[in-house]
From TrEMBL:
Transmembrane segment boundaries: 7-27, 33-54
Entry protein name: Uncharacterized protein
Classification of source organism: Eukaryota, Metazoa, Spiralia, Lophotrochozoa, Mollusca
Keywords per UniProt: Membrane, Transmembrane, Transmembrane helix
Length: 55
């Protein structure tokens, strides 16, 4: 009975760790995507300003 409890606890801990890692990975991916989007928007803005100045 004790062994079963131990195995169950270990399984819960492992699952919790995996979930935490997945969440961190998702956060990292979201951050990268947001940074890329911001960079693209800034580039477009700069290009528009340059076009305005040229024209």
């Amino acid at each position: 009975m004790v062994m079963v409890m131990m195995v169950f606890m270990m399984t819960v801990v492992v699952v919790a760790v995996i979930v935490m890692e997945a969440m961190l990975l998702v956060v990292k991916v979201m951050t990268v995507v947001i940074v890329m989007v911001v960079a693209v928007v800034v580039m477009i803005g700069v290009m528009v300003v340059v076009m305005m100045m040229v024209l």
